[in-house]
Amino acid sequence: MTAPEWIELQLQLPREQCELAEELLLALEASSVTLEDGADQPLLEPAIGERPLWDLVIVKGLFAGDVATAPIEAALAAELPRAPLQQRWVPLDNRDWSQEWKRYFEPIQCGQRLWICPSWMAPPQPDAVNLILDPGLAFGTGSHPTTHLCLRWLEQLPLTGATVIDYGCGSGILGIAALLLGAERVIAVDNDPLALTATADNADNNQIAPERIATYLPEHLPADSGADIVLANILAEPLIQLADTLVALLKPRGQLCLSGLLDSQLEAVTRPYQRAVAFQPPAIEQGWVQIAGTLRG
Question: Does this entry carry the keyword Cytoplasm (predicted)?
Answer without folding.
Answer: yes
